[in-house]
Amino acid sequence: MPSKVFLQSLQSKLKGGNIRSIHLNALPGRLATRFDLKQFDVIEEGLAHSFLGTLLSKSNFEFKVSFDKIDLNKTNAETQKKLGVIAKRLNTIIIENEDYYKEHGIKTLGFGYPVLIKRSSKDPAKIIKAPLFIWPLEAVKSKNKVNEWSFLRNKLIQPNGKIADADIHSVSINEVLLSFIKGEDNITLPHLTNEALEDALIDRKELVDACAEVLQSLNANSKEDILKTLNRNFEIPVNVLPDAAQIDAIANNTAYIHFGGVFGLFRTQKESIITDITKLLDRFDEFEFDDLKVENLSTTPFSAVPTDPSQQAIISTLGMDANQIIQGPPGTGKSQSLTALITNALANGLKCLVVCEKKTALDVIKTNIERANTEMGALVGVIDDVNDDREAIIDSVRDRQNGIPFSISLRQAQNQYDTLKSQLKESATAINTQHKALAKTIYGDKMWSQIVGRYLALKKKYPELPLKNVLATRDFRFAEDESELDAILTLLKRGNNLFNQSNNVHSVFQSLTDDLFADQAVGTARVKIEDFSAYALQQIPALETNIQALQVSGKQWADVFLNGMPDVIRQELNLHLAFCIGDRLNADPLPNSFIQEQKIEQLVTALQTLLFKAQKMRQQYDDALQHHYNSYYSDLSKALSIYLAYADDTIARYGNSLLDNSRGAKFKTSLLSIFSGKYKQIKQNRLELRSRITQVRAAHLQRSYIEHQYNDHTETTDLNTYLVNVKELHLKTESWAKAYPETISNFLSNINEHHFHADLDSLKAEVNPLLQQFHSLKQTIITDYGVVPVTPVPDINALIIAVPYLVEKLNDQRKHFNTFRGQWDNRSKSYQKLADTFKDIESNRRAGTITNGLFAPYSSLQAALGVCDKIKGTATVFHEHLNDFRVYHEWKSFFLGLDKSQQALLTIISSHIEGEWAAAFECWYLFWILSLNEPPHLPKDDYELQQYKQRKEAFKSAQLNSIIARWTERQAASVRDFKAKGQAVNSLFNKKGTKGMRRNSLRTIVKRAFELFTDFFPVLLLNPSVCSSILPLEEGIFDLVIFDEASQLRLEDTYAALIRGKAKIVSGDKHQMAPSSYFEGSGALLDPVDEESEDSDEEASAERSALQATHLNLADSESLLAYAVDKGFIESYLKVHYRSQHPYLIDFSNHAFYGNRLMPVPAKEDYIPIEYLQVDGLYEGQVNKQEARRVVALLQQIMKDAKGEIPSVGVATFNIYQRNLILEELSYERQVDPTFDSLMAKAEDSFFVKNLENIQGDERDIIILSTTFGRKANGSFSQSFGPIIQGKGHRMLNVIITRARSKVYLCTSFPQEYVSLYPQLIQQKGNKGRGIMYAYLTYAKAVSERNEELRQGILQLLRQYCSDKHYDTTEISLGSESPFEDEVYERLAQHIGADRIVQQHSVGGFRIDMVIKRKGSQIPLIALECDGAKYHNSPEAYAWDGFRQEQLERYGFIFYRIWSTKWWDAADRELELLLDFIYQQDATMATVPNHTSLQSEN
């Protein structure tokens, strides 16, 4: 935050500056732009009095001054000298006045009269010499006469050269004087009445009265006395203005009037600015200053005004930081940037204040805005003079107060704008995302396209991807370990080298064990190999004999053993027989049980089971038969016994009468039974003796074994008949019982299904299965083993006999297996002894085990013999190649020192790759890096670029529509609000005051209706004085305050304006000129003293407190731009240089002052842009006539050679006197050459002649430089070139050499022996002083003579000593070498030839990845871009791509974009498409004549 010390310092500088100005120090002294009225009398006696009389009597006049009446023959030398000085002064005043008008739009020539002389009351050492009144004048030099001038009052020069009356300009009182007296003595001097000032005429009486009132206010005298003195003094002829020493000698504390006058340039009075600073001090606590809170002022970085990316970046930055600096080197479009900023601000509804000292700069911005949109231009108010510009402001508001018709509503316009703004941002984000993807490192420090290029370069060596489906990706970390690839490649290169050296002996020593190389010296290992070889060759013969014996014995045993053996057993044993005879030693162990052995065992078991079942069944049959017969006998015997017992018991009880079964006996018994229980029982018993036979019969008839006839079915009178029959059966039964055992034996003797007891069917069912099973087993045994039963087996009894025989025979067959096992065991032991022998050879006591795989398991005795042969051969080869063992030892030691994964990798690669391992692996590895790590947003075509371009076009009109709609609506609302308060717009913005009412000044209008005014003019373009004059001193009343040409704005002049803005934009160039005396009134001296000093700026030496020093240092900033830098405003840099149509015009400044960060646009044609003309004229009287005449001659040539439109031309000189001389010479030539005069008339304002101090901001097609200085008549050469070599004078050089658009003609008289000293001078003091000026002269000569080597050498030197090297150059390095580009180049060159392709082609400030020349010529035709420009770190990357292409296409290039995303996996297809495009362009261009419109610089 600034302190009061800071503000007081600014106030002091403002007042001090005023004291030095013509307003408070009117003495001409040695200043060339001031002229003492009394000097008129030198020309003609009484001419001064005549002028004064005309001035006080006429409000408009033309007063001529001419040397025509002077007879120089009668004039002495001193008078002639005075006349020369008069002419020089008058010419200088006129030229300076005209130049100032061209830049600021204000004529400042005036006449100050009379002069108040007063010693300062606060600083008696200072004496004020101030004119009381100032008459605005115009002056012109005669075109027809050399020394004739006209002073005009309220007259103007018409285009035809005639003089006519002009608007009346009133006399002005010296406001600076009034303010100074008020500030020093608190005395308010009386003003003249409005009537006196407005009639533009002050007569003698009014003048004397005004002087009297002033003196009365300052002194103690009475007005009457003062008037007497003044009237008396006024009658005295006009006096010469005394010099400062004379005044200092006589001046006391009493103010007095000197009736002398001075012609001079009364430039901007700063009283309004001083007043603002005073108010800031008085109201200090009301202001927040640096603490003012500023909201985001920009919602989009886009503007309807065309911008390049660096300009667009400034708009973007405004949205992030409110305080900005635009560093805009010459020709980089500062005004365009400000126009875009303003347009963007208007779109956001912001109000802008633009402050600049030069009206020309303000007009450029106004014109730019009008060019973008006429209606938007109406929103811009330019006020450089509060009086002259009032009418245009008033008319504009009055015309627009009722609104302007607009096709769409504010809402529609805003919606369209918001939509397109969002879409444009979306496109920009998409393109930036693509650039970030390109910039992203995907492996190590390598970006996508770099890896693609490397991959393609490697891939072309192979028809297919090497190691594809050989290596496993899971074994590698890829992007997870960015050091992996380098480590593996280093490994592979080393391994590949060692492998190749030892490859011819790999087969010799490959069987050596790894242990032989672990920590084993070559010599030690070699001794072991020799020991092994000797022992092996010694042991092998005996081993071979043993093996052969085993082979013979094995075959002999097998022949005997297999003889007579059943086939099935032989077949099974044959599977294992090879081991026993030595044909297969690695056989599986014998099974615990052979299949046939198991089968025999199963058969034996089955037979034994069958025998058991048969025996069991026979026994069951026997038991069943016994039971069967015994049961029958038992049942029958029991039934008989029961019956007979009953009969015997009944007879014994009742007697034999019981047996009487006659009729009578039966009757008797029946009768008696009625009465007697006995007879009743007898009757019952008789019945039962017959009936009970049924029970006997039932038991008997169970079987049919006993024949018997019963009689119980017949009636008998004697019941004994029944009893006898039963007893007979009893006897038969007993007889049968004795015979049935024989029956049983008969059944058992032949047990088969045909001879079996009929009642034993359950057992009978078992017979046949048993016999069938036996026959099945028998058949198997017979078939497999040839064993046949001795007798047939028809029944169970024969089966029981045959089974034991078969079991015995089968057991005999089982013995073969045991015999085989015995042989197997014996052979195993023999084989083990054989293996032990091999092992003994392999690991002999002296050498140890040194081979691996040489003693590999052998599968047979024959193979064992082969191992013997191999061992013998290996041992022999070892011995023969021991001299080659060292290289193999190095390879093997290296290999074994690797970890398992590395060994595996080398093993795989060595077996699949014959050439370079590292290249093959890198190709494979990069393929997977690309496959696994492809960024998702890599560009694949230019769709997003085209989309952005289309949306940008639509956005432009949408933003302009939004601006017009928004501000039209705001104006209408402001008018409504104003009228609602009972006020009329026309009354406030009145054109003429009504009767008794004055016109409202702009200050009054702004004060009464600031919001209304700024709604109609949301953009105000003002100079600092007008700003303080008409705008209220309120903090942040504008959203945005912009300062143009800030390097030439004094801080004290602009700080008050700075306060009025929220966001602050300071635009300038720190390498251009700082404020000079030119802007206060020319400080050019008539007779400057030659000074050769190149010292830098002085440093303050006063002792101050740290805080005071900080604030005072800020207040002492050389310019507003320097202040902003010191305050830490965010700096943005414009990068694209548009002005120079040939890069050589800006290259010098670019390298010397800007760190080579500027991007010049390409040259449209090849020509010499700087012509160096060594004039060698004499430097006399501060001019060089020869150079002046050469300049005019050049101008004549340029004008007459012009074809069509006349080029704009500017002439720049190193002092104002050379400028004046050139104008005089030019005037003379125009008089004598009508054709030339006509051409110059057509040129009008496009031509100027200026000195180096006031050329900043100008540009012309052609600039002619006159360096002015040269040898003097005595041959001496003074290196005192004035400000251009002093302090920061190199900025002047930077300005003066960068004004040309097309060409520079350098006319110089500097001796070459001095100019050639530039290298030493630059090495001593850097890029400044004489060194940098001499370097430019040499550079110009090199360009003129096409000495490219010298030109480049100078640029290299300048770049080395450039102090401004901190800029980020990544964005202006438009194209960088990459493996991808190289690969495209090589593939393309194979088809169209390398001579047609140029890599990294420079054109202007642009570099193109590749350029395809037109077929059969050297003219660039096609611009090949690989993945687009490399703006990866720039927020404006999206804009650079389109901008760059647009610029290059403008110069004739045809663009073709190549995308690495497509090339890396389909290079052949993409190459074919590219070739098709080239051939198509070749065919098209074959019909077009060759031309040389494209300029290339390398």
Automatic annotation (TrEMBL):
Q: Which Pfam families match?
A: AAA_12 (PF13087), MTES_1575 (PF18741)
- What positions does the domain DNA2/NAM7 helicase-like C-terminal occupy? 1118-1306
- The UniProt entry's coiled-coil ranges are none
Cited CDD domains: SF1_C_Upf1 (cd18808)
Pinpoint the Restriction endonuclease type II-like domain residues: 1380-1478
InterPro entries this protein is in? DNA2/NAM7-like, DNA2/NAM7-like_C, P-loop_NTPase, Restrct_endonuc-II-like, Restrct_endonuc-II-like_dom, SF1_C_Upf1
- PANTHER family recorded for this chain? DNA2/NAM7 HELICASE FAMILY, HELICASE SENATAXIN ISOFORM X1-RELATED
Task: Return the protein name.
Answer: AAA domain-containing protein
Phylogenetic classification of the source organism = Bacteria, Pseudomonadati, Bacteroidota, Chitinophagia, Chitinophagales
